[in-house]
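Researcher: Structure prediction, please.
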Amino acid sequence: MEMFTPKIVTTLREGYDLSAFKADAVAGLTVAIVALPLSMAIAIASGVSPDRGLTTAIVGGFLVSLFGGSRFQIGGPAGAFILLVAATVAAHGIEGLIVATFLSGLMLAALGALRLGTFIKYIPYPVTVGFTAGIAVVIAATQLKEFFGLTLAGAEPGELVEKLGALAAAAPTLDPSTLAIAFTTLALIVLVRHFRPHWPSLLIAVAAGSIAATVAGLDIATIGSRFGGIPSSLPMPHLPVFSWDLVVAVLPAAVSFALLGAIESLLSAVVADSMSGRRHRSNCELVAQGIANVGASLFGGFCVTGTIARTATNVRAGGRSPVAGMLHAVFLLVFVLVAAPLAAYVPLAALAAVLLFVAWNMAERHEVFSLLRSSRGDAVVLTTTFLLVIFRDLTTGIVVGFSLGALLFLHRMAGAVTVEGAHAPLVEADRADGDRDLGERPFDETLVRDPDIFVCRISGAFFFAAAGSVGAVLDRIAERPRAFVLDVAEVPLLDSSAAATIVAFARKARRDGALLLIAGASEAAQRLLDVQQGKSAPPLRFTATVAEAVAAARAELDAAPASQA
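Model: Predicted structure follows.
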């Protein structure tokens, strides 16, 4: 049960004092100040009202920290979900989004309960960099309309190429006042980050943009003009409206939410581990993410996940335990209760500037260029994922990128398997020279060789991707000695395909009238080979070392003429 024990329980067991609470309170307030404008901006970019973003951050963030397997994880709405959420809202409406969020929560909890969190972390790094960079590009494209104050002739297209074409066609409608507020907000974010990196740059810039627009009396779009402001309280929880047709319709979206949520949250937890030196519990974290998504949907929120930027802010601000994440949600709730009317004055252009800055940081430009230069295979995986996310969709990009990454890994692992062979040294000469065990040293061509015994050594993970090439090498052995010794002591992994290759080689040796002894096989490998061989064929012969195999083969070969006579 330890792997499912929330970190808050571990923290309380270790002892939690007033100094730790003070540190968590400061960190929670810092994160809440960052999350306040970001949650509203992500909600608006996702096609829902800003209050749903705040509800998601409050309810989801509290539950992630309460039940999570990371000390520092901060949950809430994430930029990575903007594309999926917007597409779901466009296709199925708000109720469809809430149902999809509820279902994704059940899926995430099931993934954690089945202990599949370890496998989620096997997503190749080029895939994560590729889809993150792709998401950043699309997020930036979705904010251009609000940033420049453009007026489109019709609805804004969803496809990137069509969207850019429509925005270019609307260039004459650019609003200078909107652009001025957006550019000022973005410049303030950059300047504050550069000169005062510990200050809440996002909140300062949005507040300054809001004040400037209000004082100047600019006629630009605000949260108040577009959404009528935000409520000063949380909605009452209620179950989503379920119907069989709606569940079937939103199921693909729910699967995408769960997959991306698992990846994003575990990546965020890994970042927190690297910054803090702690270790998270991945399966417990997935269960918490599931609970948080179900909880957020009950209050009308949408997808919750671990957020890398806010989690890193929590660590840098001195957070010590999940209490910091819980307090971050409490502070957000206080902001909503006290200052909700002020949100009506926030220009949408200022929030667009916030998301453009977030997208710029999400792109991970240094990692992209490093992977493009590292190897051709990594460059192909990254580029394919990136392009599919931009021009197709996020799920296709992840699936295809993961498949390419897996194939690349198999190719590299198969290439690492080596096969080498030589005639065995005479046992008598080996003993006379006082050499070490033959299984512990490379072949030495200076020793006297036994022409009747051929030793073949396989090194590396011997699995299905390498089975064909290894089998071809074994088939091409030109020598036809009276005995073979197959050394597999340096094979850490042997699967059924590899076992079938060895059994086929054993059958061939038997047809040629040659002995075959297998040296250094583990107990698991021996069982697998015996199963593959079957009971109808003569059993395979195993020895612990090459020296024992050579000695046994020599003794049997020497005894063969006498027995035949």
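Model: Residues 244-276 form the longest helix (33 residues).
Researcher: Thanks, that helps.
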